[in-house]
Structures are given as structure tokens and as C-alpha cells.
């Protein structure tokens, strides 16, 4: 596949071979989103975000076969990890976590674990990215599969997410400051990267009604936000790139600065004067 890193191609070829071995004649489509689709794949950091379409609903009876597929992949390729879900073609573009019937469950693989149940990632961000940047490995062309969410739906979802998930994360972060500041530097690094670049991705979407990678969100933040935040943004980008060696003596300052940054961006996104991109 063009514009896909070689290692991703290798993992996908083995993945499809294993699927056809352990679950023969079930594969109907395979699509990629996430960092690979955005051209922002980072070795040893990025996952392969996938949506696999099967011709029947996979159930817990398929656990052994699916587990063997993903365990073999994990043993063969330590990185990158697969992260995605198994759906029917009528599920393509669906919003919300649940299947149509309470007795139905989605099979999905996340953080090295195979699970069955409600899937957390059916939302306008996922489907907007699939529609506009998704990569078809096999199956029908994406443009003919579904219309995708509108820019307004994307905007409203991200604004809600900013005031629920990110505000809640900020509150939890602030309330546990005395504990967090004593975390190992590697854990604090991971928190800074996730929080700073994650909230900047939300900021970008609210400003531009589109989706961007974490590193590109960092670059956007350097262009759009006051200089007082630039060193923290660069730090998060460096962590994302794999640079280590941050001064552990400064961890308390780093944590407090991250909290201040989250407060600033969330408040800025909620200001009435922040221009709605759909109304430009």
C-alpha cells in the first residue's frame, strides 16, 4: 500500500494470513485510521488502528481463534500493536458503543487484550477520520460505504468531549497532584505527552473542523498559542518523538505547568469569542 510504513504492511500481511487461516471465509473488509491514515506513524509508539468487517458477527465462541491471531502477531511483531474492532458492514459509521441487540457484543483488541462487549470508539472523530483519511486495505471503497459525520457533528462532539473527558481528567489530575508529582519520570513524561498533545488535537478540531495528528497538533499550538506555552508543547512533542532524559528534579514544576495548560486551553475553547469554524 502506498504511503504506509513497511512495518505496517508486514504486520497487515501476516494479520490477513492468520485471519484466513483461523477464521476462513469471514473477512470482507479491512480499513485503517489513526496515525497511519494521518501519515503520522511513529515507530515504537504508534498503533495500527483498524476496523475489520466480517460476514458474520464474531462471538465469544471465536475467542480462541481471535486470541491465537493476535497472540501470534504480538509474538512476531513486538511493535506496532494492533488496536481495533470487528464489525459487520451494516455497523460501518455507527455511533455509540452498543450493538443493536443486548445479546450481541463487538469483538475488539485494545492495549494487548482481546475483549467482547460495547466498543468505546464509535464516535464522530473515528468515522470522520475514516471517511476523509481512512485507508482501504481490502473491501469496498470508503466513499461508497457511508456518508460520514458532518463537520458540525464533529465540532459538537469534540466540544462535549472537551467539557467531559478532558475537564474530568484535569480535575482528577489536579486533585491527585501530591501523588502524581512523585511518579517516576517516565510516567510523568507519558502524562505530559498524552495531555498536552491530546488537548491540542481537540483545540485544532474546534478551530478548523478537521482532524490532525498529535505532532501536527503540537506544531499548530506553537503557531496559535502564546509563547508562554511553547516550551511545554515542545517538551510534549519531544517525548512523542522518543527523546528521554528530562530532569526529574523538575517533575513537580512540569506537572503544575501541564495542569495550568489544560485549564488555559479548555477555558479558551469555551470562550464565546472563539469563532465557530462552520460559521466562517
Characterization of the model:
This protein is an alpha+beta fold and 280 residues long. 50% of the residues lie in helices and 12% in strands. The chain contains 10 helices and 6 strands. Strands 5-4-3-2-1-6 form a 6-stranded mixed β-sheet. Helix 5 runs antiparallel to helix 10. The two termini are 37 Å apart. The mean pLDDT is 89.
Tag the structure with descriptive keywords:
single chain; 280 residues; alpha+beta; six-stranded mixed β-sheet; globular
Short overview:
The protein is an alpha+beta fold. The chain has helices at 6-22, 34-37, 63-76, 124-133, 151-175, 177-180, 185-208, 214-224, 230-240, 251-270, and strands at residues 27-33, 48-54, 82-87, 106-110, 113-117, 135-138. A six-stranded mixed β-sheet has the order 5-4-3-2-1-6.
**Helical residue percent?**
40-55%
Shape estimate? globular
Termini gap: 37 Å
Beta-strand fraction estimate: 5-15%
Low-confidence residue ranges: none
Report the total helices. 10
Largest pleated sheet: 6 strands, mixed
Cα-based radius of gyration, to the nearest Å: 20 Å
* Average pLDDT rating: 89
Q: Topology as H/E string? A: HEHEHEEEHEHHHHHH
